[in-house]
Amino acid sequence: xxxxxxxxxxxxxxxxxxxxxxxxxxxxxxxxxxxxxxxxxxxxxxxxxxxxxxxxxxxxxxxxxxxxxxxxxxxxxxxxxxxxxxxxxxxxxxxxxxxxxxxxxxxxxxxxxxxxxxxxxxxxxxxxxxxxxxxxxxxxxxxxxxxxxxxxxxxxxxxxxxxxxxxxxxxxxxxxxxxxxxxxxxxxxxxxxxxxxxxxxxxxxxxxxxxxxxxxxxxxxxxxxxxxxxxxxxxxxxxxxxxxxxxxxxxxxxxxxxxxxxxxxxxxxxxxxxxxxxxxxxxxxxxxxxxxxxxxxxxx
Length: 300
Fold this sequence. Notes:
- The protein has helices at residues 39-45, 69-78, 92-103, 159-164, 172-176, 191-194, 217-220, 237-242, 248-258, 276-282; strands spanning 2-7, 21-26, 29-35, 53-57, 85-89, 112-116, 122-126, 130-136, 144-150, 156-157, 181-182, 188-189, 195-196, 202-207, 225-229, 262-266, 289-291, 297-299.
- By secondary structure, the protein is an alpha/beta fold.
- Strand 2 and strand 3 form a beta hairpin.
- The protein is globular.
């Protein structure tokens, strides 16, 4: 489970940084979270393939989080996409996209399924590989964060060992679930002889634009990695409060209270060219802090 940062700036592109977008990869499937201006260009630049993407999640309708979406949707159609795409977003975005497609007389080459975000906490997607839950944060307009949870797929088979102990393929699924295998000659093949630990469950919390609050801590408690906005430094804390954003120190406090293992900082204001101070302000509160960089992929 990994996250690749496509854009880590706030409202305006500046200093080579782009508006918010990131790709979370779970067992090879890519989930796009937010889609700021230039997202499809960033995907091309960093080698991310939309053919592995079936879900897009939009946190709220400030432009730096969705202005790249119409172009991406249209480009996938021009390139012949046929697989369905599921868009999870605030309800008003449905009409916006419908109008854009209508005035251009565009008919997409693939089914686009729109799923409006509810006001509260809700399970948006749940399959054998992962689940995605949305949770409200506290911003100037309705805004949600997203919790992506990778599920374990059981034990990992060791093919050479399975052949050595003459285990038939029809029994592999039961082996992956932890069962032993009794051979016809009476030998009980212990599970640990032919398997090793598989991928563990993982939790990634994307905390979208928000003022400092503990209102969603119960949802993200114990997350392996938290991405939290930190638009401002402490010297501009008054601006952060007035504009419903956070400082780096406040983001670190959230990670500490949530018992997270790792904190990724992003959504930087265009007023700051250098970003080292963001980490310096966060580290005394929560030591395992990384300043996100576009094009870098982080292990969850």
